[in-house]
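Re: that backbone. Tokens:
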């Protein structure tokens, strides 16, 4: 009797989710703050907060366990790049590990900035594993915002 009932096997469910994930990634492809390092093997990638005020953009990246000498930040046109390498912690042969969750290796994050910034006034601070970048908007970018009267 059950042979007549149409149903899908449970093995097909993950393919639906992977298709949805692919569609969402394609939808956000042109979004200004997406991760441009899609082809990089991302075993780990720092999480970023990007915020904006009238005068500046601020990017905050969590880079726990890193030294500032291992981090490289650059701005090429409107493309902000943060990359670096977190050194691997040497495992002791005397220990039997039950779980290793801390990540190590190279990372690469790139963001397209939505406004022009003043390159010579960018500030970068690194304290307690948190990188904070303050990117002052250029005067030209500040003038782009215009109030439009609704009639």
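Recovered sequence:
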């Amino acid at each position: 009797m059950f042979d007549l009932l149409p149903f899908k096997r449970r093995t097909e469910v993950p393919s639906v989710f992977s298709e949805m994930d692919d569609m969402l990634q394609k939808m956000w492809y042109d979004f200004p703050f997406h991760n441009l390092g899609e082809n990089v093997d991302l075993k780990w990638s720092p999480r970023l907060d990007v915020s904006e005020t009238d005068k500046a953009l601020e990017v905050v990246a969590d880079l726990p366990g890193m030294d500032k000498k291992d981090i490289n930040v650059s701005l090429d046109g409107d493309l902000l790049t943060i990359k670096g390498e977190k050194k691997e912690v040497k495992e002791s042969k005397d220990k039997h590990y039950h779980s290793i969750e801390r990540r190590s290796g190279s990372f690469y994050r790139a963001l397209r900035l939505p406004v022009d910034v003043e390159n010579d006034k960018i500030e970068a601070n690194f304290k307690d594993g948190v990188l904070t970048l303050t990117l002052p908007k250029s005067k030209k970018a500040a003038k782009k915002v215009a109030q439009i009267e609704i009639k």
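Residues 54 and 145 are 9 Å apart (CA to CA). The chain has one domain: 10-88+103-142.
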